């Protein structure tokens, strides 16, 4: 922290020296530009503002247009704080687009003293600066409280500096917000598509949910990051999305399929892949791999391409185990659910044949967790 005012870099008694200011801007804009999580960007921005103007507290507020509120996150793991959109100094800045410099908060009618009363903190001076997005709309605001010196009062120079911070960091903030928006939209679409696939294929009730949870456990067991395992969990419900194009007569045929019918059935992998592959989006690409490769077998006897071993993408190998495990353990139109030891025996036999041997070992290690999932998401008859 750089609250000391008279160090070698030569700051005056009121703030950072130009050299210090540049270093702070440089350090933080580099950090912020590399950050993809909104919370981390907000925290970096708050720290940047605080160090630039030597404020005791600095917060970044964002607008939630749907709920007509302003919200902020003060620290990782701490819940959001929310206030109605137009309230307080920060509310004034986001509605008018004007920055504010208030020397004495208590002499201003916009000050809401409730917070101070509750926390025992004494707000003296406040600066608020709006962030403006690329299209000129306001996306949020900085709020700094109390200068870290004897008078605790900000000056117009502090206001200039915080405005500088807002203009440097605001663009990165907007792009991270956009990124999160897109990711959320993708998640919703993927979930909706998975549900369509599920209703179409008439799998037992919670099949795709269980496959998703099993895939997650196997991915973590394999050593994938939590982030990647969560992505796989999100996309694995789409493994059979291609069944939307399979005729009912084949899809719901109670007996054994003829060779032609089976050839048609195999097409669901290719149809699913074609449906998803053209999207450049990360999650869609992942989903396309799962749809394409969940019926490939380790020994090369699977379909549609007859891929071998690690030529089959890990996502395909994981989903294959999750899918088969669930299918064997559930009643289907053409068979009753298998007993657990019969299922385990099959996985031991198919280790290195149908399934990646290493993943079968992980499957066996994680078996208690998989059974808990099976219990939690069991189908209600
Ligand atoms: Fe399938
Ligand atoms: Fe399935």
Automatic annotation (TrEMBL):
Residues 182-379 form the HD-GYP domain. InterPro entries: Cyclic_di-GMP/3'3'-cGAMP_PDE, GAF, GAF-like_dom_sf, HD/PDEase_dom, HD_GYP_dom. Gene3D superfamilies: 3.30.450.40, Hypothetical protein af1432 (1.10.3210.10). SMART domains: GAF (SM00065), HDc (SM00471). It comes from the Bacteria. This is HD-GYP domain-containing protein. It comes from Paenibacillus plantiphilus. The lineage of its organism: Bacteria, Bacillati, Bacillota, Bacilli, Bacillales.
């Amino acid at each position: 922290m750089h609250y000391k005012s008279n160090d070698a870099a030569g700051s005056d008694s009121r703030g950072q020296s130009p050299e210090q200011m540049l270093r702070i801007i440089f350090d933080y804009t580099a950090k912020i530009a590399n950050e993809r999580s909104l919370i981390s960007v907000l925290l970096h921005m708050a720290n940047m503002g605080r160090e630039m103007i030597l404020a005791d507290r600095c917060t970044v507020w964002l607008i939630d247009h749907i709920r007509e509120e302003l919200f902020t996150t003060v620290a990782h793991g701490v819940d959001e704080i929310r206030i109605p959109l137009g309230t307080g100094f920060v509310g004034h800045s986001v509605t008018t687009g004007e920055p504010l410099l208030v020397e004495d908060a208590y002499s201003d009618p916009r000050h809401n003293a409730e917070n101070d009363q509750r926390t025992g903190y004494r707000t003296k001076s406040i600066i608020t600066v709006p962030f403006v997005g690329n299209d000129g709309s306001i996306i949020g605001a900085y709020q700094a409280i109390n200068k870290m010196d004897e008078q605790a009062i900000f000056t117009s120079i502090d206001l200039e500096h915080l405005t500088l911070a807002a203009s440097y960091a605001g663009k990165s903030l907007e792009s991270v917000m956009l990124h999160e928006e897109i990711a959320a939209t993708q998640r919703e679409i993927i979930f909706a598509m998975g549900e369509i696939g599920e209703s179409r294929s008439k799998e037992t009730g919670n099949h795709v949910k269980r496959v998703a949870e099993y895939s997650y456990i196997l991915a973590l067991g394999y050593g994938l990051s939590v982030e990647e395992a969560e992505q796989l969990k999100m996309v694995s419900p789409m493994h059979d999305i291609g069944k939307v194009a399979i005729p009912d007569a084949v899809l719901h045929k109670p007996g054994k399929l003829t060779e032609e019918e089976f050839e048609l059935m195999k097409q669901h992998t290719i149809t699913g892949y074609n449906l998803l592959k053209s999207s450049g989006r990360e999650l869609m690409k992942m989903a396309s791999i799962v749809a394409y490769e969940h019926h490939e077998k380790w020994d090369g006897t699977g379909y549609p391409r007859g891929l071998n071993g690690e030529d089959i993408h890990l996502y395909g190998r994981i989903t294959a185990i999750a899918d088969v495990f669930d299918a064997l353990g559930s009643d289907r139109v053409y068979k009753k659910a298998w007993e657990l030891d019969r299922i385990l025996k099959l996985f031991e036999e198919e280790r290195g044949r149908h399934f990646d041997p290493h993943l079968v070992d992980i499957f066996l290690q994680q078996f208690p967790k998989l059974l808990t999932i099976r219990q939690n998401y069991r189908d209600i008859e």
